[in-house]
Amino acid sequence: MSKTTTGDLRVAVLGVGVMGADHVARLSSRISGAQVVVVNDYVTEKAEQIAAGIDGCRAVVDPLDAIADPDVDAVVLATPGPTHEKQLLACLEHDKSVLCEKPLTTDIETSLAVVKREAELGKRLIQVGFMRRFDHEYARLKALLDGGELGRPLVMHCAHRNPAVPTSFDSAMIVRDSLVHEVDVTRFLFDEEIVSIQIVKPAANPGAPHGLADPQIAIMRTASGKHVDVELFVTTGVAYEVRTEVVAEKGSAMIGLDVGLVRKTAPGIWGGQIAPGFRERFGQAYDTEFQRWVDAVRVGGTTQDYTDGPGAWDGYAAAAVCEAGVASLNSGLPVEVAMVDRASIDGA
Amino acid sequence: MSKTTTGDLRVAVLGVGVMGADHVARLSSRISGAQVVVVNDYVTEKAEQIAAGIDGCRAVVDPLDAIADPDVDAVVLATPGPTHEKQLLACLEHDKSVLCEKPLTTDIETSLAVVKREAELGKRLIQVGFMRRFDHEYARLKALLDGGELGRPLVMHCAHRNPAVPTSFDSAMIVRDSLVHEVDVTRFLFDEEIVSIQIVKPAANPGAPHGLADPQIAIMRTASGKHVDVELFVTTGVAYEVRTEVVAEKGSAMIGLDVGLVRKTAPGIWGGQIAPGFRERFGQAYDTEFQRWVDAVRVGGTTQDYTDGPGAWDGYAAAAVCEAGVASLNSGLPVEVAMVDRASIDGA
Amino acid sequence: MSKTTTGDLRVAVLGVGVMGADHVARLSSRISGAQVVVVNDYVTEKAEQIAAGIDGCRAVVDPLDAIADPDVDAVVLATPGPTHEKQLLACLEHDKSVLCEKPLTTDIETSLAVVKREAELGKRLIQVGFMRRFDHEYARLKALLDGGELGRPLVMHCAHRNPAVPTSFDSAMIVRDSLVHEVDVTRFLFDEEIVSIQIVKPAANPGAPHGLADPQIAIMRTASGKHVDVELFVTTGVAYEVRTEVVAEKGSAMIGLDVGLVRKTAPGIWGGQIAPGFRERFGQAYDTEFQRWVDAVRVGGTTQDYTDGPGAWDGYAAAAVCEAGVASLNSGLPVEVAMVDRASIDGA
Amino acid sequence: MSKTTTGDLRVAVLGVGVMGADHVARLSSRISGAQVVVVNDYVTEKAEQIAAGIDGCRAVVDPLDAIADPDVDAVVLATPGPTHEKQLLACLEHDKSVLCEKPLTTDIETSLAVVKREAELGKRLIQVGFMRRFDHEYARLKALLDGGELGRPLVMHCAHRNPAVPTSFDSAMIVRDSLVHEVDVTRFLFDEEIVSIQIVKPAANPGAPHGLADPQIAIMRTASGKHVDVELFVTTGVAYEVRTEVVAEKGSAMIGLDVGLVRKTAPGIWGGQIAPGFRERFGQAYDTEFQRWVDAVRVGGTTQDYTDGPGAWDGYAAAAVCEAGVASLNSGLPVEVAMVDRASIDGA
């Protein structure tokens, strides 16, 4: 890879709320070879304030203008989900690589439309922000499974726990915003699609907001019959806990055990701290995700030129599983996942 | 408790196969206050051989004679399940305390008959061999939950793995012989009944014998809506692994993590050994179970006079859940557990 | 081993303070094949109270009468150290097996005298209460080392921490009462003598009683040049922590890591509990030590007939190392350990 | 911090052997805001080859020319230790910030000369490459100690193990190249100087090269009486292991326990992998060290403007302790550390 002053990737970050502002800081201070040249937010003042702190960066009012801007090489989407479809299509139209925070779009029809449009271009421009694929531990687990030493995976157990969620969080968001990560992890680790899903609702946590079905247990089955269960619990009051265990023919492997500094204190307690939130747990994963994306785009590559970069199809597939998950949340019954045949798309 | 030479509990051990022979050795060499005075087995030679090695012990051909023997104070049943009903009823008739290895009997009708007969006597004579209740870690978990510090339990995840099983093991035995322990653990830890069960069959382990549905996932719901899932996997090729995690309102707790001696060796590996079998994992639990049973019976107490000794009702309840489990194994659907009302029995 | 009612080992327990009372309870309720028939204490009322609670047990005022009693088969010494010499010699005179809590005697001259007297009898009657040899983890570590898989041991690191000690505890007792266990562990694991010892005194814990040199670091060298360091810290305020790590040619191994039930609670803490005291940490070791001693003595065996039972020589060797340790505590310099040649004794 | 294309820090990397080449890659592909514009090596071809792979980078034959180059803003020294003195003084003369891999210089006299020269300038330009200060775990340990929760530290135990070393490694290098890191860790964590050191030589590892005193045990004492012991073992054949435990008034804390992906495989083994080398163990620390250095230097700051950046004095102090360590290695006795009074320098 060559790196020159003039070769820095010029990035527009659309949406500078909590997540987008993180990405601006990431690109400005920890990622090599990129500059944030444009920021945009529907709260204009916020965009202007952030732009003012970065040399050579300006705020643009209309996100579509930012995408079209000839001084912008690539785009990061951290805007609300309902705006993604239009913005992604604009990126495709202007031939701009885009790193899109999940969800790809908010429903499977528009997700499929985006997938098809990109396929027609014959060029991969879209990467979806499933950052766990870039986490050291998930990467090691993937390598272990692919190496074949454990034989064929049979079962996976996951736990995904948040200490708390905003009051706006509802039962379906536990599927769409939390479970979606394990949906992608399943597809990533097993390289196959999920064919059915069932959501079990235990008696709710008394400490959860009234009406929130929390915890939930998701039970998924893959095309080849692998079983995946996921405990989703977003009001634990404890910390951010993500654990994944794969049970295979010749052994099992687990990631997400806490460790690091271990203390012993009165009255006879040993232990350590759990990551308080996803930033602490997955900060390295975000950095790696962005560095690899910048590296790939700078050399004129497509976003899938590096290992495991999830594309538009991965966003669509995750949306399809979550759609079925929400249906099961309502019915309590197993629901088949409805997806188009991928071959039909790639052949478009 | 008083202990005198003459006060030793005189025990008959019926069935001296692998498990029964273990119990003979346990009572003879590690348990205080008991003597094995009679052994019995349908293989007469085996009983005679064992009796010959113990001072004051003789072999008896008919198990019912052993039970009736006036020189026998109490009975340990390690005979095949189909013989339990008749032997238990004989113990009740002769007013002998009995420690009965699981299952209580092989079907819920006869189990219920035993429960009712004991209830009519107004006296608890039967203890069922759910030894996990006496394991240090389960006891600590129970104490933690009862202490209330973690709040109300909501979810439990269990794994129950065997390296291998005899060739005679079939899919239903995974429910009746393996899952039965988690059924009792659930009832013990949560102090409530299980109301429904579903068995999920993932694609089978290629290394499992043809036709054996292994692994299996059991999904249970308790009366108050707690969720329990159990991975059952009896051909792992690894070791004997039993893990239990309870997720509650204010935190979670896990037992069954391996540790002890930790080694570091070439080529850069750290770790330790997993218990190879149930004897190594639960040896202490068996010893404690027997010592407490001997202590209780010697002082003329009933078998439930000490904490958590599982009785005939616990054997019946476990059988009822497993019966529903086997039905679900065949149908793939959730099955309600059918049990009589306990109040109707105790009022008998 | 045969076990009959009449064959129970009749034991006299001398000294029924905290430790001795523990041993009475152990022999009465957890150890198979033994009865406590005599107890003795310089506080007569205490002995009588304990005797009253055990069928067939009586209090005896003079410890030497208890030893001489023809109804006593074997003796447990839990009396103060200064009385040990006379009591041990009485046991030898009356041909009674004796399990003697450390120290063997309070100085190396009298220890040596006891060793010589026993050697003259040509019969091993004395076992010293170094219970760690019977702890599961130490036994596994010993087996690992003896198996040769790790090659030749080179270095050992130990930590020995108490939450608190009685106000009577002085700096030399940290050597004589605490370090003595690691002295025996070193000799047990490495099968060789310790030839020099140095005690380092870091700045004292501000929370330690005035004048107590706590923590202390002991640095020992074995005959073949192995290095052992021990952190001794008896006022940690935390719990009872004992850790041992052996570093060898082909790898290392550690015991004493805490585990068991692992919890996660607010605010983002994971961990578990450390054993509060030596009873919890080494309870199993005491039980195993006593059961093996009873088993060996009952069959007419000597106390060294079972693996690793430490004898009078081990008590003498430990005393010699501690003697040198106390000298180093005072001088700050390394001190050679002065011991007679074992061959000269065994040839006596 | 502002970041513009023209604002990138222009760095000369002197010495592009294994470590220097790592740093070139680091600055080019993972560090934000820096460009490598000049490389130098005494093997000219190597420098030219590396320069050819980086846009805008050229090889310079004379390291002093590289330092003097007006297009170079800052310097990274990865040259052999004997060349450091001259190169550091050149950096000071040309007012260039320099990140110097350890050692500062190869003897304490020249180290002190460099410290004095920098002090005369009244400006901190030199940072020494003690990268452990930037490791997440050490940083957390430092924060824990500084927070006061554990009270005053009393004792520290360290282990520093390498699987193997080059055949050129001699006994003194174990002190100068390996122990030097724990010397800096001690000074960093405790904020005080080391006043004496003793090297203990156990019987050597039979697998170590003939004549190499390996393992070694270093015993250090700080000004306030804290005790530090370090096991140094560079031919373990296992992996790269670094462990640090601080024992304090109110508790203890340990870092360096291995974890991550935990596997269970036949025959009943659980465990994971240990980092094979320092790159895997401390890669994040090097990245953080470089990013903070670049950030500080770019805004015109001195190298000590960010937390814990070790300066020339830290290099001198480490050299003084190692000098005493080598003396003790030869004599076997404790050696006092001879250092000038820091106040005398800062007042220069």
From TrEMBL, chains A, B, C, D:
It comes from Mycolicibacterium rhodesiae (strain NBB3). InterPro entries: Gfo-Idh-MocA_inositol_DH, Gfo/Idh/MocA-like_OxRdtase_N, GFO_IDH_MocA-like_dom, MI/DCI_dehydrogenase, NAD(P)-bd_dom_sf. The keyword Oxidoreductase applies. Keywords: NAD, Oxidoreductase. This is Inositol 2-dehydrogenase. Residues 9-129 form the Gfo/Idh/MocA-like oxidoreductase N-terminal domain. It catalyses: myo-inositol + NAD(+) = scyllo-inosose + NADH + H(+). Coiled coil: none annotated. Belongs to the Gfo/Idh/MocA family.
